[in-house]
Amino acid sequence: MTLRLDDAPARGSAAPSLDAARPATDNPMRHFDFATLPAPDRYRLLTAAVLPRPIAWAVTRSAEGRVNAAPYSFFNVFGSDRPVVCLGVLARPDRPKDTAVNIRATREFVINLVPFALTEAMNLTCVEAPPEVDETRLAGLATLPSVAVRPPRIADSPVAFECRLIHEFESGPGQWLFVGEVLHAHVATRVLTGNPDRPRIDHEALDLVARMQGPSAYLRTRDVFDLVRPVWADIPPQAPPTQPNDSHCKERQA
User: Concatenated DSSP letters for the chain?
Assistant: First the structure.
């Protein structure tokens, strides 16, 4: 049985069995050789397949003190000890992106998460403005000082991570991967729940958006179901895989 989105069990209900959730064996595939594809086609395939993608609303400050803000969906958390996030910034044909220039110059940035209520403001900060333009002012966003880094954080974002650059890697001409250590997190009290000493974050209260395929498609992260992580001792014994016989091998080689 294929688990479709509209078939997903409600939160707290049981998920399908392992046998029921296994894909059908008849699954024809098409091969794409990325070495032969133009860059726009590689981008289209990658971004249409890796979904949904969380959005990092990155705020940086230039060496001269100018503030810049822009959203990026090549982003995720990659560890907790040390706590690190990764941010991918693609190349631009005419000049480097301000985010990349500023992070390389100052080694500091703030990642703000994007709730549905701020999507219009976030979209406005996508504009390719000149380096001297402060996109937070352009979008009418209030900011607050950070604790340990110079870039400010967006006041109405429910979560903000102050980051210091620990690794940078140019993965292609003008295409940068930045690894930042999270120094401080700022979380809106309205999204915190549970024990005050070890609070949890309520994802429904966050109401974050994520990127989907295409230049303008987004998703609200509210469709959630529970899937209990299996324990090895509870997994039934599996039959050993069937080995191909000699005749089968000869047929494949013919």
Answer: ----GGGPPPTTSPPPPHHHHSPPS--------TTTS-HHHHHHHHHHHS-SEE-EEEEEE-TTS-EEEEEESSEEEEEETTEEEEEEE---SSS--HHHHHHHHH-EEEEE--BGGGHHHHHHTTS---TT--HHHHTT--EE--SSSSS-EETT-SEEEEEEEEEEEEEETTEEEEEEEEEEEEE-GGGEES-TTS-EE-HHHH-BEEE-SSSS-EEES------PPP-GGGSPP-PPPPPPPHHHHHHHH-
Residue 176 gets the label, from left (phi > 0), alpha (psi -120 to 50) or beta, of: beta
CB 111 within 8 A of CB 161: yes
Q: What is the dihedral of CA 30, 34, 40, 44, to 10 degrees?
A: 40
Pick from 154, 140, 127, 123: nearest CA to 60:
154
pTM flag (> 0.85): no
Placement of tokens 């609070």 in the chain: 199
Residue 171 CA, chain-centre distance (Å), reads: 18
With cut-offs at 50, 70 and 90, classify the pLDDT of residue 253.
very low
| pLDDT tens digits, 186-209 | 999 999 999 999 999 999 999 999
Tokens of 182: 């999270």
Q: What are the tens digits of pLDDT across the range 34-77?
A: 999 999 999 999 999 999 999 999 999 999 999 999 999 999 99
Strand partners, 109: 163
For β-strands 192-193 and 153-154, DSSP reports them as: unpaired
Residue with the bigger pLDDT between 14 and 57: it is 57
